[in-house]
Amino acid sequence: MSILVLGGTVFLGRAVARHALEAGHDVVCAARGESGEPVEGVRFVRVDRDDPDGLAALDGEYDAIVDVARHPHHVRHAVAALAGRAAHYTLVSSGSAYSDVATPGQRAATAPLLAPGYDDDPGAGAEEYGRCKVACERLAVEGFGADRTFVLRAGMIVGPEDPTYRFEYWVRRAARGGEVLAPGEPDEAVQLVDVRDLAEWIVAAGRAGLAGAFDGIGPAMSRAQFHAALGEGVGVAQELTWVAQDFLLDREVAPWSGPRSLPFWLPLPRYAGFMARDVTGSLAAGLRVRPLASTVRDTFESIRDASHIDTKNGLGIDEETELLGQWHAR
Fold it and tell me: For 13, 83, 187, 328, which has the most beta carbons within 10 A of its beta carbon?
């Protein structure tokens, strides 16, 4: 199978290219080449997707195209250049495309979406990003055809080479041991997917001609199960102290990402549905999910010798210690 990855130099794009190569497919990656290096063995074509004619260097036909675009005009340009030369098109969208993030158990086929933002800036914030992804979805389906387009609304993607540090924060924290600040309640939902599992499904979907909208995320687990898998993966017993949501918010601990944050934690009930989606449709359509402890173990192996970072995403060591002291003294 001939596969074109529009991107292919960072995280999911690299994982797709790597898996496709290992499966024996012919892989072309097209990108500016400024964010990372392509996987060894692919044919790399340097392109500028901001240019309406930026994909002109791509020739021939493709059995499958995989696109991680967040800018609607990038999808518009892809449609103009490639719609007549592709048997199948995967648009990697996002769970941020959904308008209702409070209701647990929603499915991709029926969940309401944000209004499309064709002229929004996807870097301006979560809602603008989601609106741009909805616009990308619509352009893809209109341009490549509903029967040839696989819309994959990815959730939190984790694993080796993750550039966001959000999952890595928890892997490093589990490996340090000691008393761990665990946000919220043990039975709250957490939902994620290993980048390699998602890449495998994307390649398989291209081969099978899978069409329609699906959630790219594994089944939800409890926060207690999440921390247990972290401990198993790094081989360190976890001493968890569960700290209430309101206590954290009152002390300006940020949810999800950023400095002084706790990744994978979102305030409830406002975001009760964001990491509690019904993914039975995705599993039935071929998504296979490895045990989280395996992902933790592989991620830990990839960062074992790196120094601790406490400023990009997560709590600093001193910040966590101070918060735990305040929690016990309340």
Answer: 13
Q: How distant, in Å, are the alpha carbons of 5, 25, 62, 149 from that of 206?
A: 12, 11, 10, 9
Say what the pLDDT of residue 307 is. 56
What is the C-alpha separation between 291 and 185, in angstroms, rounded? 22
Amino acid letter for position 42:
V
Report the number of secondary-structure helices (H) and strands (E) in the chain: 10, 15
Domains of the chain plus CATH, in order, are: 2-158+193-216 (3.40.50.720), 166-191+220-275+291-329 (3.90.25)
Exposed / middle / buried, residue 298 (Cβ in 10 Å: 0-12, 13-18, 19+): middle
Q: At what angle do helices 126-144 and 72-82 cross, to 10 degrees?
A: 10
Q: How many CB atoms lie within 10 A of CB 217?
A: 24
Q: What is the pTM of this model?
A: 0.96
Write the DSSP string, 43-76: EEEE--TTSTTTTTT--S-BSEEEE---SHHHHH
Quick: pLDDT tens for 75-103. 999 999 999 999 999 999 999 999 999 99
Which among 287, 151, 198, 283 has a CA at the least distance from the CA of 19?
198
CB contact at 8 A, 122 and 96: no
For residues 13 and 6, what is the distance between their CA atoms, to the nearest angstrom? Answer: 8
Helical (H) or strand (E) element with 245: helix 245-250
H-helix or E-strand containing 84?
none
DSSP conformational letter for 95: G
Alpha helices by DSSP H, 83-211: 126-144, 166-176, 195-208
Q: How far apart are CA 320 and CA 276, in angstroms?
A: 27
**Crossing angle (nearest 10°) for helices 195-208 and 11-22:** 60
| Residue whose entry in the numeric block shows the structure tokens 């001493």 | 239
Distance, in Å, from the CA atom of 223 to the CA atom of 264, rounded to the nearest integer, reads 9
110-146 tens-digit pLDDT: 999 999 999 999 998 999 999 999 999 999 999 999 9
